[in-house]
Amino acid sequence: MSTMKAAVVESFGKDLTVKDLPIPEPGPGQALVKLISTGVCHTDLHARDGDWPVQPSPPFIPGHEGVGIVEKVGDGVTEVSVGQMVGNAWLSGACGTCEYCRTGWETLCENQINGGYAVDGSFGQYMLVDAKFAVIIPEGADPYAVGPVLCAGVTVYKGLKQTEVRPGQWVVISGIGGLGHIAVQYAVAMGMRVVAVDVADDKLALAQEHGAEVLVNASVTEPAPEILEKTGGAHGVLVTAVHPKAFGQAIHMTRRGGIIVFNGLPAGDFPAPIFDIVLKGLTIRGSIVGTRQDMVEALDFYSRGFIHPTYTKRPLSEVNAVFDEMQHGKISGRVVLDYSAS
Ligand code: NAD
Ligand code: ZN
Ligand code: ZN
Fold first, then answer.
1. Are 287 and 263 contacting, i.e. CB atoms less than 8 angstroms apart?
2. Which pTM does this prediction carry?
3. 331: domain CATH number?
4. Inter-residue contact 333 to 206 (CB < 8 Å)
């Protein structure tokens, strides 16, 4: 077989086209991966819609939670070998020499390359990866369950570290979707006490299953006063929600000195009360995915049995229906595309 099926964004805001494309050839430093599965991240939907100031250039293949087997390697590849299970990631390349790369902040590299955005990703039967940035999947991992760790997992793992919440302290996870339901699990594994906020009761039930102690439905209750009452104010907040409203609300959920970390990336902005931020000594931080080292650590939590993404398998042919469900908040946990399905 010299062609593969892939889902292609041909123009922003339109359904993806599932079509036959040539299987790419690995160049120097690259590996060709035959995919088993890929998670579907809300970022893929933002990419399809061209939501962000820096846009990808159609046609492109989204997807950055792909897991598969190395089928072929290009010249000079030493990091991965044929037959090995690897994945792709949002951070699919970085320059390695700039100030950010040199200081352990390759996620801030201005010359980084993003998987399923600047280069074709995992919504196809095959993908190319830069061997230096390929994710090495730990021995014994379930290729379907581990996919969501590659973006959702590493992102919230890093984001939670950025909240500086200590064991025994309260963290709010706002937004219990693909990212948020995994964030609850990392937070619990790190010894944090978890408040879950979402606008749907089924999402909150999922958070409770994964160990959240306090549940707040923001479509029914103003979340901040309730959180202040129940916890005395959280020590940190991680916002993974896809509505800007959640970002403004987050600022009011902490006790004094709290750290509010933003992972979610909806288009738009939110009101930021200067007086409260100054007087309460609040910190508001953005956090974008994680470094390759964060990935190793995030996967280690998975391997040790602390992280169990909730997922549903779907065939590639249903990718547009999956996006539609995601847009309407109908997905529980993550959808993973299953390439063994027809
Ligand atoms: P998702 O669609 O699976 O989940 C979003 C959740 O937000 C849903 O549970 C939804 O009910 C909830 N929500 C909507 N409005 C809300 C509100 N007002 N308050 C609280 N919750 C609300 O999406 P996902 O895949 O988890 O991604 C979430 C966001 O994070 C996206 O914007 C995505 O692009 C972004 N993201 C960022 C990074 C990063 O590195 N910073 C990495 C991956 C994804
Ligand atoms: Zn993602
Ligand atoms: Zn760099």
1. yes
2. 0.98
3. 3.90.180.10
4. yes
The answer, yes or no, to whether any atom of ligand 1 lies below 6 A from the CB of 335, is no
Q: Choose one of 181, 220, 242, 245 to mutate for the ligand 1 pocket test, by most ligand atoms within 8 angstroms of C-beta.
A: 242
Q: Which domain holds residue 222?
A: 153-286
Domain holding 232: CATH number? 3.40.50.720
Together in a domain, 130 and 236:
no
Rounded to an integer, what distance in angstroms lies between the CA atom of residue 155 and that of residue 193? 19
Total domain count for the chain? Answer: 2
Contacts of 203 (CB under 8 A, 6+ apart): 176, 177, 180, 181, 196, 329, 332
162 plus 261 within the same structural domain: yes
Beta strands of 54-139 (E only): which ranges? 66-73, 85-87, 91-93, 113-114, 126-130, 135-136
Q: SS3 helix, strand, coil % of the chain, rounded to 5?
A: 30, 25, 45
CB atoms within 10 A of CB 220: 10
Ligand 3: centre distance to CA 108 (Å): 7
Residue 304 lies in a domain: no
| CA of residue 250 to ligand 3 center, whole Å | 31
Among residues 253, 287, 247, the alpha carbon closest in space to that of 267 is found at 247
Same domain, 161 and 104: no
The answer to whether residues 260 and 295 belong to one domain is no
Dist. CA 339–CA 124, nearest whole Å: 8
> Quick check: is 224 in a domain?
yes
285-331: pLDDT as tens digits: 999 999 999 999 999 999 999 999 999 999 999 999 999 999 999 99
